[in-house]
Write a structure and sequence with these properties.
Layout (H helix, E strand, L loop, with lengths): L1 H28 L6 E2 L3 E3 L6 E9 L7 E7 L9 E4 L5 E7 L7 E10 L2 E4 L3 E4 L9 E3 L2 E3 L2 H8 L5 E3 L2 E3 L19 E2 L3 E4 L15 E2 L3 E4 L15 E2 L2 E4 L15 E2 L3 E4 L15 E2 L4 E4 L15 E2 L3 E4 L15 E2 L11 E4 L15 E2 L4 E4 L25 E6 L11 H7 L3 E6 L17
Parallel strand pairs: 10-12, 11-13, 12-14, 13-15, 14-16, 15-17, 17-19, 18-20, 19-21, 20-22, 21-23, 22-24, 23-25, 24-26, 25-27, 26-28, 27-29, 29-30, 30-31
Antiparallel strand pairs: 1-3, 2-3, 3-6, 4-5, 4-7, 7-8, 7-9
Length: 447
């Protein structure tokens, strides 16, 4: 019996010894590593705050006692810099950092701490937003007539002119040469007029203007070469660019899509095309006048213009050879009660050989056609699809005047409109290569 008890005790001792040995070996196999972190994701960036998300995907073999985000203005921030504690354990987390400086670049990365030490995720950077400017409003119309007045007004940092702003030099000699003091301006509730500034070469300083509630008039600025400041303007009540002899293009107006009233482009002697107006799709209730731009060879830049609520007037452009650029223009005039008429006036263009580019024009409501004094004009084929000129009456007929175009003998472009309206047209077709023209028989040879 004693032998059996001894055997049992021996077996128990050996079992306990083996178990202790195995447990010791298991403990020695556990190696603690630093935690593993995801790269931070940055969202909701504001002037003074931001949201940052990350995750602890692996605890490294030991409990994560703390996790969160560190950040600073220098690269590779640590917990000795700024930190935001997001708790403990593994899994996703996010924090919102506040009281940041506006318009400042920061660096951020996630961190996690276990018994091994502190681990960091990959770094990302972000820049807080600029603060919204505080509005300072000048109420009333404002006229700046000297550089000193420009400087003095600019020093007050107004952001809005609640009225019309006129910049018009009245000095002899002129003094306005720099509009940069006006760089705080963002909005003008009525018109912006820049006129008669003989030494002004640039309108830099108006770059922050995002809204003009009225129209834009730029005239008689003899040294002005560019309009590269109005890139944020989309709508105007009128546009007048006249007598700026050094102006070469309309770059700067590329986002202008709609003008409510008249568009006038006149006596800009170095203007070679209308590029910069490529977004303009409609002139709602006004005329388009292109007059006396000596180097203008075509109307490229108006390619997206589909309707003019008033008249189209193309006059005395000495280098203009055709109407390329108006290829999408479909209508003149308006059916509204705005009392605008869809007249077509083409006069005194010395090199104009044809009306190519007007083939899409089908409508000229309640208008007239006057084509005069274009000495090398050969035909009117660009008007071949014009068919709708409104609702004339016997007492209120359509007027068509084709006069003194020395080389013009082909009138076939008018065939459709004469067939449509017949005796409701009053015509004066005289003084061309064909001295007189009889619409009743003159289209017999036309296709």
């Amino acid at each position: 019996m004693k032998l059996n008890l001894l055997s049992v005790f021996t077996l128990i001792f050996l079992f306990i010894s083996c178990s202790s040995s195995d447990s010791s070996e298991d403990t020695e196999d556990i190696v603690v590593e630093l935690p593993t972190l995801a790269t931070v994701e940055i969202s909701n960036i504001e002037e003074t705050s931001v949201t940052i998300s990350s995750a602890v995907s692996n605890n490294g073999g030991a409990t994560v006692t703390e996790k969160g985000v560190v950040w600073g203005a220098s690269s590779n921030p640590t917990t000795s810099n700024n930190k935001e504690n997001a708790g403990s354990g593994t899994g996703d987390f996010n924090v919102t950092l506040t009281n940041l400086e506006s318009n400042t670049t920061y660096y951020a990365r996630s961190y996690a701490i276990n018994s091994k030490g502190t681990a960091y995720g990959a770094q990302k950077q972000f820049t807080t937003l600029e603060p919204e400017p505080q509005q300072k409003i000048y109420t009333g119309d404002l006229i700046l007539t000297s550089q000193q007045e420009v400087d003095d007004f600019g020093a007050q940092n107004y952001t809005v002119v609640n009225g019309t702003l006129s910049i018009s030099d009245s000095n002899d000699p002129s003094t306005i040469v720099d509009l940069s003091p006006l760089e705080s301006l963002t909005s003008i509730s009525n018109d912006l007029i820049i006129r008669g500034n003989l030494l002004l070469t640039s309108i830099e300083g108006l770059n922050q203007i995002t809204q003009i509630g009225g129209g834009l008039s730029i005239s008689a600025n003899f040294q002005l070469g560019t309009l590269e400041v109005f890139t944020q303007i989309e709508i105007l009540s009128f546009l007048s660019i006249t007598t700026n002899p050094q102006l070469t293009s309309f770059s700067g107006l590329q986002n202008l899509s709609s003008v409510a009233g008249d568009v006038s482009i006149e006596t800009n002697y170095k203007l070679i095309d209308l590029s910069g107006l490529n977004s303009l799709t409609q002139i709602i209730n006004g005329d388009l006048t292109v007059r006396s731009n000596d180097l203008l060879t075509n109307l490229e830049g108006l390619n997206n213009l589909t309707s003019i609520g008033g008249a189209l007037k193309i006059e005395t452009n000495d280098s203009l050879i055709d109407f390329t650029g108006l290829d999408n223009l479909q209508s003149l005039g308006t059916s509204s009660m705005a009392f605008t008429w869809g007249d077509l006036e083409i006069d005194g263009n010395l090199k104009l050989g044809g009306l190519d580019g007007l083939e899409s024009l089908t409508t000229a409501l309640d208008g007239s056609i006057e084509i005069t004094n274009n000495p090398v004009l050969l035909n009117l084929d660009g008007l071949a699809n014009l068919e709708n000129m409104g609702s004339p009456t016997v007492s209120n007929t359509i007027y068509i005047g084709i006069q003194y175009n020395d080389m013009l003998s082909n009138f076939c472009g008018l065939k459709l409109v004469f067939e449509t309206y017949g005796n409701l047209i009053t015509d004066e077709i005289i003084g061309n290569a064909t001295e007189s023209f009889n619409p009743s028989t003159g289209f017999d040879d036309c296709p």
